[in-house]
Structure formats: structure tokens, C-alpha cells
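Annex B.
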Amino acid sequence: MDQVTALEQLLATALRRIAELEAALASMAQENADLRRQLAKNSSNSSKPPSSDGLKKPVPRSLRGKLGKKSGGQVGHRGDTLRQTATPDFVERHEAEACGTCQHGLTAGMIKAVERRQVYDIPVPRLEVTEHQAAIYCCGHCRATTTATFPDGVNAHVQYGKRIRAAAVYCNVQQLIPEDRVCQLLRDLFGATSLCAASVTNWVNGTARTLGGVVEHILARLNEGGVRHLDETGLRVAGKLHWLHSISDLAFTHYRISAKRGAVPSFLTGGTIVHDHWKSYYAHMSGVDAHALCGAHHLRELKAIEEIEKEPWACAMSVLRNSANQLKCAAQGRGETELPTSVHHGILTKYMAILTEGLAFHERQDPLARRTGARGRKARRPGHNLLVRLRDYRDDVLRFLTDFTVPFTNNQAERDLRMMKLRMKISGTFRTLEGAQVFADIRSVISTVRKHGGNILETLTLSPQQIIARL
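Putative IS66 family transposase: predicted C-alpha cells.
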């Protein structure tokens, strides 16, 4: 009897050990799958930047599918070929002395026409020096001395003018050239031999202070409603992680530096905001009328689930999303402002059918092993999480179909943020928060001016009132 009891205890111990080993094996298998998933991600199936792909860059392939357009310029594209002008600055006459056939002498009276060729080039770069002379008067009545007033901005005995200051700010903030290289550039091009990096920094800071009213005007215009694109990207300021938040539409751009990613622009009201489902936008922006989610982010996630997880529903959802976008673009091309009810209903029916299929697929899967010490809700697979999001935020996912003013993607915001990544590659971090915000303010004005088709270099020489009048 004692032997049977001992064997039962040994068996129970062995079963517990087997259960522990099975749990550990399941945990390691899940961890292995997570690591493989991370290794398989790249810029084409996730939000990772292309610079992280290394030498194993994926073959470029559009997630939007074929749009039926031919390669090259589309119908109606005017082109920007260099064309001759009717008012050249200089004309050089070239004459021949002898006939090219019989070598007989030629005279001016034999000219019957001219062949015109024009060469566009820049003049020899040089600084122009303007001397301002203020007349000094001696009053004939009281013998007091009066000096005429110099123009605004002429404050020193010798100084640089507003155009070269604007050129320095343009090179530093728009073209992202560091201050010392800006000095070298202006020395080589214009002979500004006494220019130093400290002067460029002072000019940039002064420009930001001057443009403060323009930045406020831009923000006010963006708060008038309509479709606004929101996004954020990380950057280093004084060695610490900060965030550049952007608000933009087709005509205006506003940048703001914050120490927190969740410091979204909660002051916005009305209209629709397009974003990539950062939860802070839902939590802190109750004043807007509607949200719209970026389709490009969904397509990248669906591609990862299709390629890495091998889930069958993901491909069907990608095809449906692209087809719906193409139907919308075709309707817009015909001048329509909404899809026919039957077409919209058909898309919605297929959308819900794919979601039902995907959710059923995940219900058949074994539950994920719970990691030791894990808290909160039970973990779900990436595909399951995406399905739940596409279901719970269906109206926001398909906002581009119900409101033709809403685009399919949030590419506007991503294009407006791209310059910050380039700035970080060239110059690295910002030393101070003030310097980072100076850069953001000037870029807000520059980006807005570009969207209005204005000349940035000329704009930087104008007063705030003149700039606002042009926006």
C-alpha cells in the first residue's frame, strides 16, 4: 500500500512537471514567434522607416495597387520645360563673314532672318553696398542741429541687409544647412567674408520672433474646421526625447514642440481630423466633429499579417480597401461628391463579411500563453487586435467613403513631418527647447508659404502683415 501511494505521488509530481514544461515550451514558442515577427517587419509592412531596412531593403511595391494609369505624365499635365522669353536681359548678335557654300563675302544687307537661342544663367554673384546718408541740418532760426531719420532696419555704421539675412535663414531652416556651412556658402557665393555662425543664429532667432504673429494666424486658420491632418515624430532636445506635433491641411502647416507625445492639440474644434489611431487623439480631442483613420497604416499592417502571420482574411481586406479607394477616386474624377447607395452598401457588406471571417478564424486558434507576471486583459494576436480595431472604429476607417473631402491616407501629415527626420540626419539634436521651437515656428511659415505657391526667400524679407495678407 505504501508503494502504491509513493507511485501515485511520483506520478502526480511528474504530471505537474510535464505541465510546467508544456507551459514553458508554449511561452518560448510564443516568444520565438514574436521575435520572428519583429525580424520580418520592414518599412513596407510596418511603420518602420526605410533607413532601418539596412542592406536587405524590400523591393519597392505600392500598397495601393494598380490605378489603371499609364507611366509618365498624365493627360492635362502642363509640364515645366524651360521656355524662351520675349524679354531677354541681354542680346548678343553673331554674324558670319563668308557664305558657307561658295565662300563669297556677306554683308548686313543680306540678313533675312535670325535664329534665336537663349541661355538662362545667374549673374556673377556679389554683394551690393548701399550707403545711406542722413542729412544734418543747422536751423537758421534757433541754430539747433537736426539729423534726418534713417530707414527702418538701418541701425549700425556697417551691417548686412535683409536679403542676405533672409538667404542665411533660408539656407539654415529650409535647406537644413548647419550654421558654419551657411557662412561658408555665403562667403563663396557673395563674398560675405566677415559672416560668422553666431550671426546666422541671431538672424534665425530674430526671424522667429518677427514671425510670431504669422504663426498665430496659421494656427487660427487651422482651427476654423475642415479636414486637418495630425501626426507626431520624436526628436532629441538637450539630450531628452521630445515630440514634434503637426497640424496641417492643403494650405496651412503648424508645428509645435512638446516633451510629451500625448500632448495632442486638444484645442482644435469642429471639422474632421485624420490620424493614425494614436489613442490620445480620441481621449483628448472631443471638440472635433469626426475622426478619420489613415488607410496606408492599415495596408501596411494587413501586409504584415498576410506575409508573416499567413492569415487568409488579410489579403481580401487589402483588396477591398484598395478597390473602395479606386471607386471613390473614379467618382471624384467624374465630379461626383458621393458614391451611389448600392455601391456603398456593397462595400460595407463585404467589409463586415471579411471581419466576421477573420474574427471566426481567431476564435478557432488556441489562446496565447500568459507570460509570468503579466497583468491586464488577455493578450491577442496582432491580426486579432487589428480586426477588433477595424470593427470598433468602422465609421472612422471608412470615413473617406462617406466624406469625399477626407483622403484615404494621412500622407499630408507624413510629408509635412519628413523634413524633421532629414534635419536630424544632418544636424542631430537640438541643444535647447527654445532653439527647437524657433525651428518649428519658421518651418510653419515656410511650409505654409510653399503650399500657397509663394517664394520663400522673398517672404523672409517681408513684414508679418505683408505675409499674412498673402496667405
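The radius of gyration is 33 Å. DSSP finds 16 helices and seven strands in the chain. Further annotation is deferred to the next reporting cycle.
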